[in-house]
Design brief:
This protein has 185 residues and is of the alpha+beta class. It is 17% helix and 41% strand. The strands form 2 sheets. Strands 1, 2, 3, 4, 5, 6, 7, 8 and 11 form a 9-stranded antiparallel β-sheet that branches. It has a two-stranded antiparallel sheet with strand order 9-10. A hairpin with a 3-residue loop joins strand 2 and strand 3. The termini are far apart.
């Protein structure tokens, strides 16, 4: 009877260990948020791709984004940042960063060219210079070593921006953002 009791005790311990460590909702830990302030912490539903006007994406737009306009887009400041979830397999195969935006003609009434630079987890990607208005896509490969955490911070910076309304609107305006995301390769 002592042998049966020891076997039963062992079986219960194994079941408890498995339930705590492998069942959904029972896992310890969570996303690695050490690099973020409380205001920057992503929601539990951090997405790999977002439409910037979608209210569900607002928590992922951590800095430099103005309010939604026309239910479709947002102006950015000169510096702006987002948090995205890497797609499945990105830690092994990398991902493509795709940012869709518009450079309106008013930008080029102030400047001849605008350069967009990007940091993924502090590592620079190749910048791109734009010399005319219209819809644009900034697309860069992101190496696997930058995509091994639960969330990834991406910082964007324009080399220049302008003040919106000559004193009436104090916003610094850069470009009009539409969507961005990390896509599997």
């Amino acid at each position: 009877m002592a042998i049966e009791s020891d076997a039963l005790r062992h079986l219960i311990l194994v079941a408890l260990f498995l339930s705590v460590n492998f069942l959904p909702g029972c896992k310890r830990g969570g996303p690695d948020l050490a690099a973020y302030t409380e205001e920057e912490s992503p929601s539990p539903r951090t997405a790999a791709g977002i439409q910037v006007a979608d209210p569900r994406a607002a928590s992922q737009l951590v800095s430099g984004w103005w309010e939604v306009e026309d239910h479709a887009w947002r102006w950015t400041a000169r510096k702006f940042a987002v948090i995205l979830r890497p797609p499945l397999g990105a830690a092994r195969h990398g991902a493509a960063l795709r940012f869709r935006f518009t450079l309106p003609a008013v930008v080029f009434s102030h400047f001849k060219a605008v350069t967009l630079s990007t940091l993924v987890e502090g590592t620079p990607l190749a910048p791109e210079t734009y010399r005319g208005p219209g819809p644009k896509v900034y697309m860069r490969d992101v190496p696997p070593r930058l995509l091994s955490t639960h969330t990834v911070r991406i910082d964007f910076e324009l080399d220049r921006a302008f003040l919106a309304g000559g004193g009436k609107d104090p916003r610094e305006l850069g470009l009009i953002g539409h969507s961005l995301g990390l896509e599997s390769q």
